[in-house]
Design goal:
By secondary structure, the chain is an alpha+beta fold. The protein contains 2 helices and 3 strands. Strand 1 and strand 2 form a beta hairpin. The N and C termini lie far apart (57 Å).
């Protein structure tokens, strides 16, 4: 089953107060609010931090020796978070080229 949204439950990072959210994948999302409302806490300290933590956990034990230890964000659950890199495919990249014939 393909899940089409990021689900955050119980986010309490910094000034977030047990926040629950569903954010659609493949859409542009703007996080707005007054100063101190938790915009950066949500975007950077919760969503980005969890993605970074999961990426580092996917590395070998040897590779992790050279990286700073990261704490997970204060959140009950984050589901369907996407990685920050595009997986490689076996198919070659196809490029379209515009051809134009000239009559002389």
């Amino acid at each position: 089953m393909l899940t089409r949204e990021l689900i955050i439950e119980g986010a309490r990072q910094n000034n977030l107060k047990n926040l629950n959210l569903r954010l659609p994948h493949n859409k542009i999302i703007a996080i707005t609010g007054v100063s101190g409302s938790g915009k950066s806490s949500l975007a950077f300290d919760t969503i980005f931090a969890e993605g970074q933590w999961r990426f580092i956990e996917s590395l070998s034990t040897y590779a992790r020796l050279f990286l700073e230890k990261l704490d997970r964000p204060d959140v009950d659950s984050i589901r369907n978070i996407r990685s920050g890199h595009r997986p490689r495919t076996e198919e070659p990249c196809q490029r379209s080229t515009f051809y134009r014939r000239h009559s002389h």
